[in-house]
């Protein structure tokens, strides 16, 4: 029996956003590995073993998945959104470092609908021009680096998407980022808080930067900051394709 | 009859990357509007009228779609990839400016797998840390702004994804961007040229920045530039999650 490992994205929550490619590998898997709430999205069936694990054990999880694939299992590592955006794909490749026997395995990454694109679609098209994507979690990088990147990106008038803006263990980071944004951007700059996108608890709120507060975000929120041209039209928020003024 | 308008992403090419949500609206549409090669991906059927149009007529296409929806048609505007990333969603919202009668229409944006995420998955996980996304087309913005943004993003050690890197009408822009990158990044920086991802003509090539040349890209290519930590492991390219050194 030849094992394989697929690192897949389940999209933001709605099963109608799971690609057929991902559904097909889940249907042929023997083992599913991932963070508890993501594994909970997989329907149990005969012949499929579910391996839910807690947050912040990404490296253990990646090694366990590789070991199972090496032993002949058909293993799917699940992430929400896209597996390559602040999710399990990089962790699996880190686990391959120095492990030549694992590097020869059949390993594939299957993309998914990442949260910022689902959020952008619900709001309109705030990422319709150049944009930057920043993980605000400071587990794996210093807050000073996050601040410097946000300052550079906003200074160059990119729109911004923030993942993991706020957690109970480090509630202050997002407040510092809002301070940076207020130093660089005008008070009217539009900022979108998109929580639990594509789930029954979905909530999309757009405010001016001057009215934004850290409490508007939690770990299930993706935050999108427009560029200087981002605007409302009717109930939508969008960023024009051109840097020239919009003519109606 | 109540019309509606859905602006959808077909993903990069493979039908296994079209979300069920998008397939469902296509199945209930009366009219499909879009650029010729994207409309060509829609199977003809009774009751469905296809409206292919040429490139660079995005505003005419958006207005035509809105007119049809206002007349009671069930209209799908198709883009490749995600409709909100350098695609039709912003054009439709631009067409809504000043058109209050159209703003009340049932308009939805449905996300898709954008090219950079499909390309990243094929290569490994080069976008596993903070990254910026830049449209290199200078149809709607000056090349100097593109250069300034690339300089700012690379200077802050973001990974980068470039859409529309090169066309026959402006072959020199991408060469100028490579020059900017060589001024900011080390010669060994990894750069991925992902052409026609998820199609039979797919080609993924990774080289060091010093070996990159403008001819490696065309309009069907997405270019991904790693950050300073992006590395190879086995046949994969990935960006570590942490800014601290990788320990095997």
UniProtKB/TrEMBL annotation, chains A, B:
Signal sequence, renumbered to the chain:
none
- Any single GO BP term: methylation
Pathway membership, UniProt: Cofactor biosynthesis; adenosylcobalamin biosynthesis
Q: Which UniProt keywords apply?
A: Cobalamin biosynthesis, Methyltransferase, S-adenosyl-L-methionine, Transferase
Q: Write down the superkingdom of origin.
A: Bacteria
Pfam families (alphabetical): TP_methylase
Show the GO MF annotations. Answer: precorrin-3B C17-methyltransferase activity
Q: Which NCBIfam families match?
A: cobJ_cbiH
Q: What is this protein called?
A: Precorrin-3B C(17)-methyltransferase
Gene name, Swiss-Prot/TrEMBL: cobJ
């Amino acid at each position: 029996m030849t094992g394989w490992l697929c690192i897949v994205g389940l999209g933001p929550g709605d099963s109608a956003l799971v690609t057929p490619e991902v559904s097909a590998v889940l249907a042929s898997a023997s083992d599913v590995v991932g963070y508890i709430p993501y594994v909970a999205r997989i329907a149990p069936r005969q012949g499929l073993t579910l391996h839910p694990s807690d947050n912040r054990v990404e490296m253990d999880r990646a090694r366990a998945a590789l070991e199972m694939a090496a032993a002949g299992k058909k293993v799917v590592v699940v992430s929400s959104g896209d597996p390559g955006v602040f999710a399990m794909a990089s962790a699996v490749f880190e686990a391959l470092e120095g492990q030549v026997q694992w590097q020869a395995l059949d390993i594939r990454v299957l993309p998914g609908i990442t949260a910022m694109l689902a959020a952008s679609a619900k709001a309109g098209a705030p990422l319709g021009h150049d944009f930057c994507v920043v993980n605000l979690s400071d587990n794996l990088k210093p807050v000073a680096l996050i601040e410097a990147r946000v300052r550079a990106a906003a200074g160059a008038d990119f729109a911004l998407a923030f993942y993991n803006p706020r957690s109970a263990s480090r509630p202050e980071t997002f407040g510092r980022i809002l301070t940076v944004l207020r130093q660089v951007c005008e008070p009217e700059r539009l900022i979108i808080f998109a929580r639990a996108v594509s789930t029954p608890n979905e909530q999309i709120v757009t405010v001016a930067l001057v009215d934004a507060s850290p409490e508007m975000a939690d770990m299930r929120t993706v935050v999108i900051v427009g560029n200087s041209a981002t605007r409302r039209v009717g109930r939508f928020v969008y960023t024009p394709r051109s840097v020239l003024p919009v003519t109606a």
